[in-house]
Amino acid sequence: MRHRVFRSSLILAVAMVLTGSGLEVAHAQAAKGPSGLPLPRFVTLKSKRVNLRIGPGTDYATSWMYMKAGLPVEIVQEYDNWRQIRDADGTEGWVNQSLLSGSRAAIAAPWMKGKGKNVFVNMRRDALPSSTVTAKLEPGVLVHIKECNGNWCFAKTDGAEGWVAQSEIWGAYPGEAFK
User: Which CATH number does 106-178 carry?
Assistant: First the structure.
């Protein structure tokens, strides 16, 4: 009997996936936080002094302090008016939502820091791999993102602007498009 129940459940699950109902809908709902916004999602730090706490509230200890406004962080969880964030180094903790902004920024290839002197992320005039390079960004450089088309992001940094491959930045998901 147990074998039949398993087999019936398996057939039902496969049918639900193939018809686009059930499991797919549950996943779409699970991707939204209590705020109604998607989880995870990228935002930036609004203030130049932001305490990262070990839990969602001022009663929790501060584990880190960010000292630069505009840094990109990823919201991975929500609780009341607190957001659990992850930074480009993988550090996680909680911050009050009032210290976050919907503005977008990214860090050029933080995973390439310290890999050598001639490692750069090319910023291009157009969103094409053959387009003219307008700047060479060192890994770890902060850029402000204006839009992404799913493969490329239009970004600005001190004295330069252009298109950067989404695969070479931390601050936009692969395939994510926005203006």
Answer: 2.30.30.40
Class of domain 41-103: mainly beta
38-76 pLDDT, tens per residue?
999 999 999 999 999 999 999 999 999 999 999 999 999
- CA dist 156 and 164 (Å) reads 10
63 in Cβ contact with 86 (< 8 Å) = no
Using left for φ > 0, alpha for ψ between -120 and 50, and beta otherwise, residue 20 falls in left
Rounded CA-CA distance 137/157 in Å is: 9
In the chain, what are the domain boundaries?
1-30, 41-103, 106-178
pTM over 0.90: no
